């Protein structure tokens, strides 16, 4: 198969950077975005098959569409869009301001939405493509300390689940990748006391809990991006799983998904008669 053309947001660190490097090592082409070109490591800046783009996830949709259009004009196609960029603002609902909550959604949901919406017409025209949305275990099961972050990922889950159905007739495949806690810099702001709500007495100290495990997270990001690459390419451990919407990653996320299924099963059993009782 000809080399794939990848478009990866937030590719200056974490999963985004590792996936970009992995794709390049497999002779693919990568268009990589970051908030600043200076954030990219020199190895990526010097790579002949890497095109680096400076753009904010909160950029106007017209600017995002222009970036996608230019990439297609230059490379002829985009085979894979990976919406990786995002962050977590931690704290209870009462501890996070409405402005902070809106910014969380502007980055994690609306930025992702605008990049997705911009690439769909091109994939629809070429009759193929793969869209990978980086969600989270927190997009499956809400937990203490991160309701606004969790809500932004729940929104990504709902968007993507619906979108997968409507894009299937056009030959476009859609996946939700749901990592647990991986050893990237995602928790670094928590360790440094950043992206935290205004602490109020009595609430769980999510900042202390998350910051305290930074550097010792159980998930191996290199193995994680290898599984993502295999899911996209239909190889390795993910061969034959291309019809699956979700890919939980990490034993912690797998446990969260099992807990969610158990809770839903309990609800179904207990509310069957009430649900049926409200029909005409």
TrEMBL record:
The keyword Nucleotide-binding does not apply. Residues 1-25 form the signal peptide. It comes from the Eukaryota. The keyword Transmembrane helix does not apply. Gene3D superfamilies: NAD(P)-binding Rossmann-like Domain. Keywords: NADP, Oxidoreductase, Signal. Pfam families: adh_short. One of its GO terms (molecular function) is oxidoreductase activity. CDD domains: 17beta-HSD-like_SDR_c. PANTHER family: SHORT CHAIN DEHYDROGENASE, SHORT-CHAIN DEHYDROGENASE_REDUCTASE FAMILY PROTEIN. Belongs to the short-chain dehydrogenases/reductases (SDR) family. This is Uncharacterized protein.
């Amino acid at each position: 198969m000809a080399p794939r053309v990848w478009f990866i947001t937030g590719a200056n660190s974490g999963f985004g950077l590792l996936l970009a490097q992995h794709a390049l090592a497999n002779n693919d082409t990568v268009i990589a975005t970051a908030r600043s070109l200076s954030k990219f490591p020199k190895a990526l800046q010097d790579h002949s098959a890497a095109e680096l783009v400076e753009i904010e996830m909160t950029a106007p949709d017209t600017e995002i569409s222009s970036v996608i259009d230019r990439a297609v004009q230059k490379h002829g196609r985009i085979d894979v869009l990976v919406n990786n960029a995002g962050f977590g603002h931690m704290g209870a609902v009462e501890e996070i301001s409405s402005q902070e909550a809106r910014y969380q959604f502007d980055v994690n949901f609306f930025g992702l939405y605008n990049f997705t919406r911009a690439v769909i017409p091109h994939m629809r025209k070429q009759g193929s493509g793969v869209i990978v949305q980086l969600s989270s275990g927190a997009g499956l099961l809400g937990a203490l300390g991160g309701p606004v972050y969790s809500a932004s990922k729940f929104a990504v889950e709902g968007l993507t689940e619906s979108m997968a159905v409507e894009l299937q007739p056009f030959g476009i495949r859609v996946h939700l990748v749901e990592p647990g806690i991986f050893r990237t810099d995602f928790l670094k702001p928590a360790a440094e006391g950043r992206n935290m709500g205004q602490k109020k007495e009595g609430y769980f100290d999510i900042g202390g809990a998350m910051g305290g495990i930074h550097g010792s997270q159980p998930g191996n990001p290199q193995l994680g991006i290898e599984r993502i690459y295999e899911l996209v390419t239909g190889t390795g451990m993910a061969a034959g799983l291309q019809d699956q919407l979700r890919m939980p990653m990490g034993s912690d996320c797998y446990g969260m998904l099992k807990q969610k299924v158990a809770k839903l099963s309990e609800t179904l059993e207990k509310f069957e008669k009430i649900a049926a009782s409200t029909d005409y």
